[in-house]
Design goal:
The complex is a heterotrimer of chains A (308), B (367) and C (372). Chain A is α/β, with parallel strands linked by helices and 308 residues long. Chain A is built from 11 helices and 13 strands. In chain A, strand 1 and strand 2 form a beta hairpin. With 367 residues, chain B is α/β, with parallel strands linked by helices. The chains are: A alpha/beta (308), B alpha/beta (367), C alpha/beta (372).
């Protein structure tokens, strides 16, 4: 087992012509961690991941992936990482066996070793269909698991997953995340991007990206505490006419965040005193209860709030 | 390197050969095309619809008209209701009309005056020329006798000897040309879309995320098609030999080397198209823009040697022209070393330039 | 099938127009490519073989034999160059250095002078169809010219045969080539355009979206075809303007009849494209099928260059299922011969029948996909 961080990124920028896709980003990831990238579309997550996989070369700044740098254009990095793109990267018109053989050939793997890895990975993902199954005929969740197995065939130290669960059923998503935990259990580092907040909660640490910049970094709990230092309450007006109260509340001093969640509203305050003051005029029929902020609240506050 | 290539070859073959429709296109269609074009095509003008206009009872004119029909070049036109000679041609009922003198062919000949008019539809210039040449030959041979005069033979003429294809059999002309076309079509279609397709479907990301050099990917994506193209060439050459008895007077290795050089050239050009195109639609159009002129300027549609000087370079840039020349020379003439080497070096030059351009254009970047 | 809603078709057509407008590539292609190709090949294709390299072995080397060589030289068709032996001439033919050879034996000049039957040997290369026929066709003219030059007897037919070339008195081969080229290019582009756009919709799934709407197959097909019909008609117009004013190709027939024929032809080609795309549903296969069913047959079997009348009977019937074969007849008939509807009844009816059949096939294939 190698020592040192899995990723060591300092001042990383990636430019395409005039456009800066990733702007001065720094962070480090320890080995064995599940590290998540969270952000809207176009925030630079995919570009960052592709760079760290050795597919793009940084425009400025430095990045060490498993201790390796980009002095050879990313070649040596490609050897120690596995990359699962958000596009479906298996060939639908080939069988499972042919797909994995091809992946092994691309990595110049010795056939016997490739077969051994294949058996290990099949066991890991619980795949028990015949090798001659056409990929096109597999259900979506199984296809994704197979794509993961293909990306991990060469036994990479670090696995990059770019929105691995988009477009699959909730059940398959849960299975896939169980798989991610199993992988880190084997000592691998997993870097994952996602749109789903419940998935983000399962990451050890999360990097929040907006317009190419890293705007927050930490464990889900740290992010919540950082974004909402004071209490948060959930208001339920139970159908009562509350327009006046709401417009007053929006102007209340010490209000950090106020947003609708279905029929209810979430309101976060700087401290307990601000909360008590603001809720003084609450209509009788309404109820208010203290809640813990969710990552979704954090996302809304940090990403969308900044855009307002 | 060897493992990667092997993996690519196996993968491309599996993809190209799994779909039964693709197998049909790759192996059955070329045979059918070979058979159809080899049997059907001929640049010789035959079955010319001929009408004749002469006074009733003009036996000499009727006799001469019969000679036209029995020559094999002409068939009697069905005049329908049209009586006017030029009307026969306007309506397309006849390609040529013989108009004999009203006083009678024999009488006009005896008086040494008058003439026989041949109206020819000159929409097609080549056909008009052939019709006139046939008519003149028949006329020269038989007109005097039919008109009851003594025939005089000319004091000078040519002994014409046609070598390599003395019977002027059409398949000998057509088969080498059509062979080249088919091989060209198959390889360009297969390769011009192959890289674009990987990019469009996303599988290209699998390939570039592996630590491979550009040349490894390019060789992996092209060598399988060189092999398929060669198999195709072997198939059509066998078909030409078995179906039409087109001989191979030269050496088999010459045929192999020529086919290999040609297939490498077209695969390189197809790959170049693939690296330039943004999507499959553009790749297909690129393929068409290459194939259409290539087929037209291959040398079997019209004589490309006397194209205007300004346009001539286009012929010299056409790999199909060289391949057709090579096939004709090897199969029918015995593979003369000088012609073999000059055509082959042209192909080689083109293969190298197309391959280097494709290599220079190729990027491992995404999107 | 109850009712065809023109408005729904129009909606599909609008969407297609938007696609085309957004992708200037298509627009440039349909408008520009035919003109470009017609201009290029209008200049390039010439069936007259000129400047053929002729190996001359003149062992007679008399005044008369030199006269014969000079006749070849001044004909413009041949470029004679002397070789030192007959076998040199043959090796020259072997290596494609010469296209023909002229061998004159000793005594040739004497024979001509005596009025005895004098023969010169002419060897032609039988591997190249585009040249061999033409070369042989030049010989009668050359021997006539040679006889005149020898100052000997010219033979005269008892009754001269006078040929009159109708419609194309100057035997300008462009008049034959350009309308034919236009037919081929327009037909191929039509097939390619639709085969590709529709196959693409299958491949990226947007066709399912169209099929999930209450649109009827006929409405979808009409909507998809209409913008391309207009686009390609624009291309046809361009090409005809170039033919008329750039190359001086006459247009002797009626414009409405020509437009009608063109429309039928475009519909048949577009329908063929749709059939291909529905059958394959995949762009690469669609391309292969369009090229195989489009490119070679329309170039080789339509009568564009290789005469249909010279084909064996079976293939003459076989060409009848190719729409370019009929439109070739119609286009050349109208433009060059000024033929009217009655003269072209057979090809017009055949083309109409083919278009209807292809349209019906496109429609039926589509409908079957709708009902899985």
């Amino acid at each position: 087992m190698k020592t040192g961080p899995a990723l060591e990124v300092k001042g990383l920028s990636i430019k395409f012509g005039d456009f800066t896709a990733v702007d001065d980003v720094s962070f480090s990831v320890a080995r064995g961690e599940i590290f998540g990238f969270l952000g809207a579309n176009g925030a630079g997550k995919t570009t960052a991941i592709r760079t760290l996989c050795g597919l793009l070369v940084p425009s400025s700044g430095s990045a060490l992936v498993g201790g390796l740098d980009f002095s050879d254009g990313g070649k040596s990095i490609k050897k120690i990482v596995g990359y699962m793109s958000q596009k479906f990267t298996l060939y639908n018109d080939l069988t499972v066996g042919e797909n994995l053989d091809f992946a092994a050939g691309l990595r110049k793997m010795e056939p016997r070793y490739a077969a051994k890895r294949r058996r290990e990975l099949f066991e890991l993902i619980g795949f028990d269909r015949p090798l001659s199954t056409m990929v096109a005929s597999l259900p979506g969740g199984v296809k994704q698991e197979l794509a993961l197995a293909s990306a991990m065939l060469h036994d990479p130290e670090i696995v990059f997953l770019d929105e691995p669960t988009s477009g699959v059923s909730p059940g398959s998503r849960a299975r896939f995340w169980a798989l991610i935990h199993k992988i880190t259990g084997l000592g691998k580092t997993v870097i994952v991007t996602t749109h789903y907040m419940d998935e983000a909660e399962q990451c050890g640490r999360i990097a929040l990206m907006r317009a190419g910049r890293l705007i927050a970094l930490g464990s889900p709990e740290e992010l919540k505490r950082g974004a909402f230092p004071g209490p948060m309450t959930e208001l339920d007006f139970k159908g009562a006419e509350a327009g006046e109260f709401i417009s007053a509340l929006k102007k209340a001093p010490g209000l950090l965040e106020f947003s609708p969640h279905g029929m209810r509203w979430h309101a976060a305050f700087r401290d307990q005193a601000a909360l008590s003051a603001a809720l003084a005029g609450l209509p009788v029929s309404a109820s208010a209860g203290l809640i813990k902020p969710s990552l979704e609240d954090v996302f809304i506050r940090l990403i969308e709030g900044a855009e307002r | 390197m060897k493992r990667t290539l092997k993996a690519f070859i196996r993968k491309e073959f599996a993809q190209a050969l799994r779909d039964p429709r693709m197998k049909l296109i790759l192996f059955v269609m070329p045979m059918i095309q070979m058979a159809v074009f080899g049997l059907a095509l001929s640049s010789e003008i035959r079955n010319i619809k001929l009408a004749a206009v002469y006074s009733p009872g003009d036996v000499a004119a009727a006799g001469l008209t019969r000679r036209f029909i029995s020559s094999g070049w002409f068939v009697p036109a069905d005049p329908g209701r049209a009586r006017d000679p030029s009307g026969l041609i306007v309506s397309g009922k006849a390609d040529a009309v013989l108009v004999f003198p009203v006083e009678g062919f024999a009488r006009a000949a005896a008086r040494g005056r008058g003439m026989v008019q041949l109206l020819v539809d000159a929409t097609s210039v080549t056909r008009a020329r052939s019709v006139e040449a046939y008519a003149r030959n028949i006329f020269a041979a038989h007109a005097a006798a039919d008109a009851g005069l003594e025939a005089s033979s000319p004091p000078f003429g040519f002994d014409v000897r046609i070598i390599y294809n003395p019977e002027m059999e059409s398949p000998m002309f057509m088969v080498p040309g059509v062979m080249g076309m088919i091989v060209c079509l198959v390889t360009i279609i297969l390769t011009s879309m192959s890289l674009t397709r990987e990019r469009e479907t996303g599988t290209f990301e699998t390939i570039v995320s592996a630590p491979l050099e550009n040349h490894e990917i390019l060789l992996g994506k092209t060598i399988p098609y060189v092999v398929l193209g060669l198999a195709n060439a072997a198939l059509v050459i066998a078909a030409g030999f078995l179906l039409f008895g087109v001989p191979v007077k030269g050496q088999l290795w010459q045929l192999f080397v020529a086919s290999l050089a040609f297939v490498i050239t077209t695969v390189a050009i197809g790959t170049l198209i693939s690296t330039i195109s943004k999507n499959q639609q553009q790749a297909m159009m690129g393929g068409f823009i290459f194939l259409f002129p290539a087929v037209l300027m291959s040398g079997i549609m019209y004589p490309v040697e006397n194209m205007p000087v300004l346009l001539k370079p286009a012929v010299y840039l056409n790999p199909l022209y060289y391949f057709t020349s090579l096939l004709r020379n090897i199969m029918l003439k015995g593979g003369d070393p000088a012609a073999f080497i000059s055509n082959l070096s042209a192909l080689f030059l083109m293969a190298v330039s197309a391959a280097s351009l494709a290599y220079a254009r190729f990027r491992q970047t995404l999107d | 099938m109850n009712g065809f809603d023109i408005h729904r078709s129009a909606a599909v057509a609008r969407k297609e127009v938007m696609h085309i407008m957004r992708d200037p590539f298509t627009l440039v292609l349909v408008m520009g490519l035919p003109v470009l190709l017609v201009v290029f090949f209008g200049f390039a294709i010439d069936f007259d073989v000129k400047n053929l390299k002729l190996a001359v072995y003149d062992r007679d080397n008399s005044r008369v034999s030199r006269q014969l060589v000079s006749v070849f030289d001044s004909s413009g068709y041949f470029i004679p160059s002397a070789v030192s032996s007959p076998s040199r001439a043959i090796t020259g033919l072997d290596s494609d250095k010469f296209s023909a050879a002229l061998l004159i034996e000793p005594g040739f000049g004497r024979d001509v002078g005596r009025g005895a039957l004098a023969r010169a040997q002419f060897v032609a290369d039988g591997t190249d169809n585009s040249k061999a026929m033409a070369v042989l066709g030049y010989l009668p003219g050359i021997s006539e010219a040679a006889l005149r030059k020898f100052g000997g007897v010219t033979r005269s037919d008892p009754v001269p045969l006078k040929a009159r070339y109708m419609y194309n008195a100057e035997l300008n081969s462009r008049w034959f080539v350009i309308p034919g080229l236009a037919v081929i290019i327009i037909g191929l582009l039509s097939i390619l355009m639709t085969a590709l756009t529709v196959a693409r919709e299958w491949e990226n799934g947007s066709m399912e979206l169209l099929l999930s709407t209450p649109l009827k197959p006929a409405e979808i097909i009409a909507g998809k075809i209409a913008p391309y019909v207009v686009l390609i008609l624009g291309g046809v117009l361009f090409v005809n303007l170039v033919a008329r004013f750039g190359f001086g190709v006459p247009f002797r027939g009626g414009i409405p009849l020509f437009l009608g024929g063109t429309l039928l032809f475009i519909v048949s080609a577009l329908s063929q494209g749709i059939v291909i795309s529905v059958v394959t549903r995949q762009q690469q296969l669609a391309m292969q099928l369009s090229m195989i069913s489009g490119l070679l047959p329309s170039l080789l079997l339509s009568g564009f260059i290789f005469p249909i009348e010279s084909m064996p009977v079976f293939f003459r019937y076989f060409t009848m299922i190719l729409s370019p074969r009929w439109f070739m007849e119609i286009a050349r008939g109208i433009t060059i011969r000024g033929a009217g509807a009655a003269d072209l009844a057979v090809p017009l009816l055949a083309l109409a029948a083919l278009s209807a059949a292809l349209l019906a096939a496109a429609f039926k294939k589509f409908k079957r996909d709708l009902e899985p």
